[in-house]
């Protein structure tokens, strides 16, 4: 049995289709915001930077401990050298013991010089490690700022899209609520399985949905259909909305 619906409702169905198309476009735009891709790329960069920062902080911590050990060792040898120098300065030391003290003082001086050189090298590495950490932390702060800006831009765009979607959705509800219920049910069913396009204009002898010309047999069906008959494209099954005075009627 052929479904019928007022021809006026069929034509107004195109207005609903236009609103549905716009709603789909809004959703697509919200899903494909450039901020989404930028945030994903930024996340990859931040993840790499976090790994580098962990490694740099580990190196800095290890060098810090090494510097502490070097300082303690230098202080220990320096204190012993000072005690030895004090004993030598006090005088009255037997010749044999004096010779031992002099040898010890000389050995401690050499040892202290070696340790101080090593300590200087560690301090230089400590400074380099700290600079590396500071540089990475600065980069991390910069990325955090960039992330904040992207999130703000994304949220602003999503809010605008949501508001527009709500506005168009309200228009759509008002428009479709006035149409023939059977026509609406068919439209929704077709739209669900046809990528959101349930109705299309008949443009001359071509379906505005699949863009295919009508065959001779189907052309006769369309020509002979009453204004209130709901006609579906034989190729894509979409509702063909005819103008009040279509070219086919001649």
TrEMBL record:
Query: Which keywords, in A-to-Z order, does the entry hold?
Result: Coiled coil
**Where on the tree of life does the source sit, at the highest rank?**
Bacteria
Q: Which residues form a coiled coil?
A: 60-153
Instruction: Please list the residue ranges annotated as the CT398-like coiled coil hairpin domain.
Output: 16-194
Under Pfam families, the record lists: CT398_CC
| Key word Coiled coil present | yes
Q: Which PANTHER family match?
A: PHOSPHOLIPASE C-BETA-2-RELATED, SCAVENGER RECEPTOR CLASS A MEMBER 3
Q: What is this protein called?
A: CT398-like coiled coil hairpin domain-containing protein
The record lists the organism as Quadrisphaera granulorum
């Amino acid at each position: 049995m052929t479904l019928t619906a007022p021809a006026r409702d069929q034509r107004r169905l195109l207005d609903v289709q236009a609103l549905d198309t716009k709603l789909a476009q809004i959703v697509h735009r919200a899903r494909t915001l450039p901020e989404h891709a930028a945030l994903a790329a930024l996340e990859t960069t931040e993840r790499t930077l976090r790994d580098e920062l962990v490694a740099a902080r580990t190196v800095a911590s290890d060098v810090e401990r090494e510097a502490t050990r070097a300082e303690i060792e230098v202080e220990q040898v320096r204190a012993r050298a000072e005690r030895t120098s004090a004993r030598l300065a006090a005088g009255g030391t037997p010749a044999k013991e004096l010779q031992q003290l002099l040898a010890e003082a000389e050995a401690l001086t050499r040892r202290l010089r070696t340790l101080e050189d090593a300590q200087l090298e560690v301090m230089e590495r400590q400074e380099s490690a700290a600079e590396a950490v500071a540089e990475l932390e600065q980069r991390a702060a910069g990325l955090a700022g960039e992330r904040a800006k992207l999130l703000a831009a994304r949220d602003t765009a999503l809010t605008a899209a949501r508001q527009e979607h709500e506005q168009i959705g309200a228009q759509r509800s008002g428009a479709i609520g006035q149409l023939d219920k059977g026509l609406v049910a068919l439209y929704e069913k077709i739209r669900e399985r046809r990528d959101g396009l349930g109705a299309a204009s008949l443009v001359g002898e071509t379906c505005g949905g699949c863009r295919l010309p009508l065959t001779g047999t189907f052309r006769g069906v369309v020509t002979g259909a009453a204004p209130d008959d709901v006609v579906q494209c034989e190729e894509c099954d979409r509702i063909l909305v005819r103008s009040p005075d279509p070219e086919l009627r001649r």
